[in-house]
Design a protein that fits this description.
By secondary structure, this protein is an alpha+beta fold. The chain has helices at 3-12, 43-60, 68-88, 97-104, 109-126, 130-134; strands at residues 15-20, 25-32, 35-41. It has two domains: 3-60, no CATH class; 68-132, no CATH class.
Length: 143
């Protein structure tokens, strides 16, 4: 990850940028060795800060902050969803990754919502309840 982005995140906890409505200036509230300091920001510092934030924001696009194990589960769920969409939409096995993504994640939210809802119902039908796996009897109804 971008080094300045890591520095920004580390410094974010010890500094706050705010606008002073009394004199319409930008100030930085920083904590140094337990003492609060106010630093007046000039236009150049503001420009540099905003430029760094824009660069860091762009660098962070697509960054997955979750643990590797969680990301692995998410990736498996995504692959199952793409297989589900390819089957339901009867897409050929030779369909490209990009074509599958276009169909699986349409721009129309109502269609996407319907696909996700159908996929969740499909998954729930396929899943084995944990209680059944562990041998616990949860009801008299057999599935």
């Amino acid at each position: 990850m971008h080094n300045s982005f890591q520095t920004y995140l580390r410094n974010l906890c010890s500094a706050v940028v705010y606008h002073d409505t009394n004199d319409h200036s930008w100030r930085v509230l920083e904590v140094h060795h337990g003492k609060i300091e106010h630093i007046l920001m000039n236009d150049e510092l503001i420009f540099e800060l905003l430029d760094e934030l824009q660069t860091d924001s762009s660098a962070a696009i697509g960054f997955r902050h979750l643990a590797q194990q969680t990301q692995g589960r998410q990736d498996r769920h995504l692959e199952i969803y793409k297989l589900f969409i390819r089957s339901v939409k009867q897409m050929p096995l030779t369909a490209s990754h990009d074509n599958i993504l276009v169909v699986a994640f349409p721009a129309d939210f109502s269609i996407l919502y319907k696909f996700i809802r159908f996929f969740m119902m499909y998954v729930f039908r396929q899943a084995t309840p944990r209680a059944r796996i562990s041998g616990l009897k949860t009801s008299n109804i057999e599935h």
